[in-house]
Amino acid sequence: QGSQKRSNSTPETPRPKRTLSSRSPYARFSPDSFSPSVTPSQKYAARSSRGEVVASFGSVAGLTWSGGGGRGCTPKLFGLPEENLTKSYKFMFQKALDVREALSWRIEELGDALKSRHHLEDFASVLLPAQEAVTVLGQIACDSNGKLNARSVVLEGDRERSSGGQVPLDLAELKEFSLFPGQIVALEGTNSSGRRMVASRLYEV
């Protein structure tokens, strides 16, 4: 028996790729065999159903409408004059001081709601050491750029009592909790060192 020569394949002389013959069983399952023969769609400008109603809901028979062309219509501002915009205003171009004032007002407003709903006494500062249980007010924040979890929860106190200071929270003593960044809460707990508060009870709006 003579030896069969094998064709060499090098980068200079690549081996030709195999082509599927008509007798090959793989030819009938090629992508070309499954591609349907479709006719090209018509251009949008050449459509024939322009203005045709293809679906309707409810009774539309006998409806008439007529307008006065905007005559006799005068816009009126509602609310207090100092709360209305009377000149152009750039959206999301608020000053940092204005944003801080709005957040502080929001904390104080929700703090009053928490105090009246849960019959709480005056809030304490989050930065002062407390051997006994105290009640503090603030908003939930995260100590990093990642997602909020049980180990990254920080309580940012209000400006009046805590000067906006932050303290890490230990939530191990809470049976259950559901928090999100920016949430206004009142917490009852101890802060023996002034650097970490161990929460024992959570008050929500």
From TrEMBL:
GO cellular component labels: alpha DNA polymerase:primase complex
Record GO biological process: DNA replication initiation
The record's listing under Pfam families reads: OB_DPOA2
Q: What is this protein called?
A: DPOA2 polymerase
Give all residue intervals belonging to the DNA polymerase alpha subunit B OB domain: 100-204
Subcellular location field: Nucleus
Q: Provide this UniProt record's keywords sorted from A to Z.
A: Nucleus
UniProt feature, compositional bias: Polar residues: 1-12, 32-41
Q: Write down the InterPro entries for this protein, in alphabetical order.
A: DNA_pol_alpha_bsu, OB_DPOA2
Q: What are the boundaries of the region Disordered?
A: 1-41
- Coarse class of the primary localization is nucleus
